[in-house]
Write a structure and sequence with these properties.
heterodimer; A: 173 residues; alpha+beta; 3 helices; 6 strands; 39% strand; B: 454 residues; nine-stranded antiparallel beta sheet; four-stranded antiparallel beta sheet; 15 helices; 22 strands; 30% helix
Chain lengths: 173, 454
């Protein structure tokens, strides 16, 4: 697997093979599934060999030589999602409520791997137990066409404050 | 018990009783301030590792008892710690987390310091009074009086007077040894970035949880259940496999914790949880080619007998009171930073074993993500517990908190410590409070043991 390298990638204003508007609709759909807590449906958007990655360092180039806030291969992502549905997930008692905005989409040059890399900006507000937190950053999705729909082969989330002292992170970004 | 704002020795001595502590010990800002000076100010505290300052002029910023420090390797190769404060107007001098420098210069009026803290130059120095003396030791970035590096681990003591490092660390030195001995080439280095996780709670709660063998089955049941139900034929690049293995291990039955796992404690508040994991539970052990290569590398450098001795040291968390926790089998280290009576930040680090296969470090990273990660499926429930304790302590329910599990069932240990009857004993918490009393009542570093060894 080649890791999407946000630090060295140049943006391209030209939509490539994939229709950016279709990608945007997909990302909005994904954000809605997360906001509404439909985590099983969210998981179903990923390919069977997908990765989900939230680096701990700005410009991090690898999940294998540096720790990550979250780094899930498909197997761990399934476990993460199953735990989110467990009634004894105490760090979600009470549940968080989230609201996301996804915007500023651009398609990114091919990195030799199948699919289209789509870069976007996001903001997420999380409310839980009388406290509200604001997260912001960059999404990088590697999307594959799957019949009429799209699938996520890789999702990278670069938080602007990824290296800050942070309270626990339970809801995926 | 009558409580008032009195900070007398008598009040402090009444906070801890055999088998229980007063809830105020976690919530009173005045007690917290005393802890900063009497415990963090007079104990030896861990600040970093020599591999973070390999070259002359390398430095990193640290913090002990909320005080900003710079730890620096001087041009003479010596490791020193300086208070990170300009002697002129009081600003911090060094603003980067780490770097390399020939000198330290304050950005306010240009006061410039040697790497050992002595004042080097003062612009416009003719404008100061006649008795201004740049060589006055007070016009310096003041050195911390005691810095000790043990096998690369840098500890310091802010107070001029107190216990020696050797008396402080005692037998727990063997846990530091175990971190280093596991490297085939005999050296380890900090690598792989840091987590900084935070919670709304007192610093003591963190150390009290690290050797708590009775909590995983409840606190971590969501991740235990999710991992137990996970199908193993789903794609993994190895990272998820290690995480899931650890989550399942957390679900070991009480009989396991009460028979196989042990808890050992030593003077000055130190402890370790042992025999939780052998390598076969952490990795696929000798079925795992990386682990086989690693053991071969160790045997080639250290011989079979020494390798076997190292492999049989099975310590889970080793806690060196008041600010350090280590896990040598997966090269993890945590530093506890109290911020306020109800706010704590923990910085976590990984170590790379020199001479070990590259894949070993990849496993170390995967393990760090699951046990220390801010977004971990496990740690997030521990952080929730600390937050809930803080919420609960505002209650007028229980005035005293129980730490009596296993009380009076401890056994003496050959190295001057106390061993719990089994791993679910709270002896390690009572042991920390014995040290707490010692420090807080001014017997700096002396354990004030309340409990007779059976």
């Amino acid at each position: 697997m080649t890791i999407l390298d946000a630090a060295t990638r140049k943006s391209s204003p030209i939509p490539a093979e994939m229709d950016l508007r279709a990608c945007e609709a997909f990302l909005i759909h994904e954000a809605r599934l997360l906001d509404e807590g439909h985590f099983d449906a969210w998981l179903a958007l990923f390919t069977p060999d997908a990765h989900y990655w939230v680096p701990s360092q700005p410009g991090q180039t690898s999940p294998f030589d540096t720790v990550s806030l979250m780094y899930d291969d498909r197997r761990l992502l399934e476990t993460r999602v199953r735990r989110l549905a467990d009634p004894r997930i105490y760090s979600q008692e009470p549940r968080s409520r989230t609201s996301r905005i996804v915007t500023n989409l651009s398609s990114e040059p091919d990195n030799g791997e199948p699919g289209q890399i789509v870069r976007s900006k996001f903001m997420m507000v999380e409310y839980r137990r009388e406290e509200q937190r604001l997260f912001a950053g960059t999404y990088m999705h590697r999307l594959l066409a799957d019949g009429e729909t799209l699938r996520i082969a890789m999702k990278r989330v670069d938080l602007v404050n990824c290296d800050a002292p942070l309270d626990g992170l339970v809801v995926p970004f | 018990m009558q409580m008032n704002a009195d900070q007398s020795e008598e009040m402090l001595s009444r906070m801890v009783e055999p088998g229980r502590v007063h809830r105020r010990i976690y919530t009173d800002p005045a007690i917290f301030e005393l802890e900063m000076s009497r415990i963090f100010g007079s104990a030896w505290t861990y600040v970093g590792h020599e591999s973070q300052i390999k070259h002359h002029g390398d430095y990193f910023c640290a913090r002990v008892a909320r005080k900003p420090l710079v730890v620096v390797r001087g041009q003479d190769g010596e490791v020193r710690a300086l208070h990170n404060q300009c002697a002129h107007r009081g600003a911090i001098v060094v603003a980067n987390d780490a770097g390399c420098a020939d000198e330290f210069q304050c950005c306010y009026h240009g006061w410039t310091y040697h790497l050992d803290g002595r004042l080097k130059a003062v612009p416009l120095n003719h404008g100061y009074p006649d008795d201004f003396d740049a060589k006055n030791p007070n016009t310096a970035m003041v050195q911390v009086p005691h810095v000790k590096s043990y096998r690369g681990f840098i500890f310091l003591r802010l107070a001029a007077q107190g216990q020696s490092f050797e008396d402080f660390i005692g037998y727990m030195k063997t846990s530091l040894d175990d971190m280093v001995d596991r490297a085939p080439d005999g050296e380890i280095e900090v690598a792989g970035g840091t987590f900084k996780h935070t919670y709304n709670g007192n610093w003591k709660l963190y150390l009290e949880n690290l050797c708590d063998a009775a909590h995983p089955w409840f606190t971590h049941r969501s991740s235990i259940a999710a991992a137990q139900e996970q199908k193993d034929d789903v794609y993994s690049d190895g990272s998820g496999e290690i995480a899931i293995r650890q989550m399942r291990q957390n679900g070991a039955p009480y009989s396991f914790w009460e028979s196989q796992v042990g808890i050992w404690t030593y003077p000055n508040g130190h402890s370790y949880l042992g025999d939780y994991h052998d390598d076969a539970k952490l990795v696929a052990a000798m079925n795992d080619p990386t682990f086989r290569d690693y053991v071969s590398a160790l045997e080639a450098r250290k011989g079979k007998a020494e390798t076997q001795r190292i492999m049989e040291v099975r310590r889970w968390n080793s806690n060196i009171y008041p600010n350090l926790s280590m896990m040598s089998q997966f090269q993890q280290l945590r530093v506890i930073h109290p911020v306020a009576v109800d706010r704590t930040v923990v910085h976590t680090y990984c170590f790379k074993l020199r001479g070990a296969p590259e894949q070993m470090f990849r496993n170390t990273i995967s393990f760090a993500n699951v046990v220390n990660g801010t977004g971990s499926l496990v740690l997030t429930d521990d952080l929730e517990i600390y937050n809930r304790i803080t919420l609960g302590l505002a209650s007028e329910g229980a005035e005293w908190l129980e730490i009596g599990r296993g009380y009076k069932s401890d056994a003496p240990d050959a190295h001057g410590g106390r061993k719990g009857k089994n791993s679910t004993s709270e002896v390690y918490i009572r042991n920390m409070f014995d040290a707490w009393r010692g420090y807080m009542l001014g017997k700096a570093g002396a354990t004030d043991r309340q409990e007779a060894v059976a």
